[in-house]
Design brief:
By secondary structure, the chain is an alpha/beta fold. The protein contains 14 helices and seven strands. It has two domains: 2-246, P-loop containing nucleotide triphosphate hydrolases (Rossmann fold); 260-301, no CATH class. The chain has helices at 2-9, 11-22, 28-35, 55-68, 92-95, 97-100, 123-132, 169-173, 176-180, 195-207, 229-245, 248-274, 278-287, 293-301, and strands spanning 43-48, 73-79, 105-111, 137-141, 158-163, 184-187, 218-220. Helix 10 links the parallel strand 6 (184-187) and strand 7 (218-220). Helix 2 (11-22) packs across helix 3 (28-35) and helix 2 packs antiparallel against helix 7 (123-132).
């Protein structure tokens, strides 16, 4: 415990490590290899939902609750990428400025860099760094729900889906795949008109999804008014307890480890293939219809 506290307090070192792995700088693989055995201690909570749902405000409010409980909290906020600088546009570190210097808190914004799924390609590496450096609770806040933004389920132990009043028919048109990834649902801005109706509509839609052992609870919260946060944290803790008792957490993390390995294999395979001398020649042959993609792939896969 003492070692974790010491490492957690070295904010500059943590920031440098994340920068190295995020940008795949020289030595990034060695860092991830060194820290891997120290990972697996943090509980990872993915926060997603439609744009404007108040995900950042809720992340901020929940972080304060966990900090008050004596937990070390890490936040990885995924923002859209600037087409000019390649950096994060929204800057959640600014939006969560009051907490950014808290000794129990570490916040990092990362740009998607065009990555689909609502996450940055380097999110998993950043999670490993914060986990190994002593985080008890890790929040991953996605850009916002879209058709393909279900990647968070491959990283999080619990996925918190954030909704807001006034969605109306939007709830009905949301993709089933997106709704199915939610383990806990929060209706933020519950002080607004229509919150109760949104809760009823959401629970009705959840009842139409395929039955599961865990029925996602729906909680009413107001991040700005600090209402309902305790109940939401309890719902998250109940999901954690359910998974631990039924070995679902072990299964989930095994699946996530598999996804991480496959991602590394894909990256290395693509890098190897695209650096092959035959790659450009085969592309030209495909353009001229002299060869089909499957034959080109077969040739590239040959040693």
């Amino acid at each position: 415990m003492a070692d974790n506290v010491k490492v957690w307090q070295d904010r500059r070192k943590i920031a440098q490590m994340i920068t190295t792995v995020e940008n795949a700088l020289p030595g990034h693989e060695e860092i991830l290899q060194d820290i891997y055995k120290k990972t697996g201690q943090a509980y990872i909570i993915g926060i997603t939902g439609p744009p404007g749902a108040g995900k950042s405000s809720l992340t901020d409010a929940l972080s304060r609750v966990y900090i008050d409980m004596g937990k070390r909290v890490g936040v990885i906020a995924i923002d859209p990428t600037s087409p000019f600088s390649g950096g994060s546009i929204l800057g959640d570190r600014i939006r969560m400025n009051e907490l950014s210097t808290h000794p129990q808190m570490f916040i990092r914004s990362m740009g998607t860099r065009g990555q689909l799924g609502g996450l940055s390609a380097a999110t998993h590496s950043a999670v490993m760094v914060l986990d190994a450096c002593g985080a008890d609770i890790l929040f991953i806040e996605t850009v916002g729900v879209g058709q393909s933004e279900v990647e968070i389920v491959k990283l999080a132990d619990t996925v918190l889906m954030v909704m807001v009043p006034g969605l109306g028919d939007d709830i009905q048109t949301m993709k089933a795949g997106i709704m199915e990834i939610g383990d806990v649902f929060a209706i933020n801005k519950s002080d607004l008109p229509g919150a109760d109706r949104t809760k009823i509509e959401l629970e009705a839609m959840l009842s139409f999804l395929p039955p599961k052992e865990w029925r996602p609870p729906v909680r009413m919260v107001s991040a700005t008014e600090k209402e309902g946060l305790k109940e939401l944290v309890e719902a998250i803790d109940e999901h954690r307890t359910f998974q631990e008792k039924n070995k679902r957490l072990e299964e989930r993390r095994k699946r996530n480890v598999q996804e991480a390995l496959l991602a590394i294999l894909r990256d290395k395979m693509v890098a190897r293939v695209t650096s092959d001398d035959r790659y450009k020649r085969l592309l030209e042959e495909m353009v001229k219809k002299e060869i089909d993609p499957y034959e080109a792939a077969r040739q590239l896969m040959q040693k």
